[in-house]
């Protein structure tokens, strides 16, 4: 069950988010401005999992589904306009980019049915994710160049080889603040930061 931790009082509060069949929630992700909390509402049809990414608007408490069934592991872009996610099907999982306003699938970054748990670079120029191959999990990166949402997608780069990473964890990023590109103005399209400094997960 998703709960909120107050960092000053160290107390947990229950936002009483709806659930399906007692299956609970997972993968919470705050928007960069702190106004929206995305989370996965777990569900199933028979033996098949049918998770959805839901949106909780903090100021109003309004909860709505961002996606249809089959999406999980949301990760916001730095400008808050896009969400990387894991798309699940009966055949496996792939990494996609969604429109944060309505959940529309804008781009499919993998087609191997083995990729999952994307995390957007703070610089906005790439997405790290896990890939499962013959039971072994490795870390990959996909570069994004050009202007969103019409990115030029680079070839996947293997950052580890036969590492056997923990599939239940998620990649993490750090880019020093003085190396982050400037965010676009509200009237401009968000840049894919093809000229941004190199960054590493």
Please, how many helices?
0
The proportion of strand residues reads 35-45%
Number-wise, the strands total 17
Ends apart, CA distance between termini: 28 Å
Order of helices and strands: EEEEEEEEEEEEEEEEE
> How large is the radius of gyration?
17 Å
**Major sheet summary line:** 5 strands, antiparallel
Unreliable runs: 187-201
Structural class: mainly beta
Share of helical residues: under 10%
The shape, in one word, is globular
The residue-averaged pLDDT reads 89
Question: Can you walk through the features of this model?
Answer:
This protein is mainly β and 201 residues long. 0% of the residues lie in helices and 41% in strands. The protein has strands at residues 4-5, 12-13, 25-30, 36-41, 44-45, 48-49, 52-57, 62-65, 71-76, 82-88, 93-99, 105-108, 115-120, 126-133, 136-145, 152-153, 157-158. Strands 13, 14, 15, 16 and 17 form a five-stranded antiparallel beta sheet that branches. Strands 3-4-7-8 form a four-stranded antiparallel beta sheet, with no helix packed on it. Strands 9-10-11-12 form a four-stranded antiparallel beta sheet, with no helix packed on it.
Features:
single chain; 201 residues; 0% helix; 4-stranded antiparallel beta sheet
Strand and helix map with partners:
Blueprint: E1 4-5, E2 12-13, E3 25-30, E4 36-41, E5 44-45, E6 48-49, E7 52-57, E8 62-65, E9 71-76, E10 82-88, E11 93-99, E12 105-108, E13 115-120, E14 126-133, E15 136-145, E16 152-153, E17 157-158
Antiparallel strand pairs: 1-2, 3-4, 4-7, 5-6, 7-8, 9-10, 10-11, 11-12, 13-14, 14-15, 15-16, 15-17
């Amino acid at each position: 069950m998703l709960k909120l931790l107050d960092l000053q009082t160290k107390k947990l509060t229950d936002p009483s988010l709806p659930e399906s069949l007692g299956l609970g929630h997972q993968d919470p992700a705050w928007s960069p401005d702190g106004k929206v909390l995305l989370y996965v509402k777990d569900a199933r049809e028979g033996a098949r999992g049918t998770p959805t990414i839901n949106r909780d608007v903090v100021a109003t408490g309004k909860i709505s589904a961002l996606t249809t069934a089959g999406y999980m592991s949301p990760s916001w872009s730095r400008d808050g306009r896009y969400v990387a996610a894991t798309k699940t099907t009966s055949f496996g999982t792939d990494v996609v980019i969604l429109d944060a306003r309505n959940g529309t699938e804008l781009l499919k970054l993998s087609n191997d049915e083995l990729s999952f748990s994307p995390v957007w670079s703070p610089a906005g120029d790439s997405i790290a994710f896990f890939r499962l191959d013959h039971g072994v999990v490795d870390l990959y990166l996909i570069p994004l160049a050009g202007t969103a949402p019409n990115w030029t997608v680079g070839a996947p780069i293997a950052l580890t080889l036969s590492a056997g990473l923990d599939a239940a964890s998620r990649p993490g990023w750090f880019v020093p603040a003085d190396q982050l590109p400037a965010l676009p103005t509200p009237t401009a399209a968000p840049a894919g930061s093809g000229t941004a400094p190199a960054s590493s997960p």
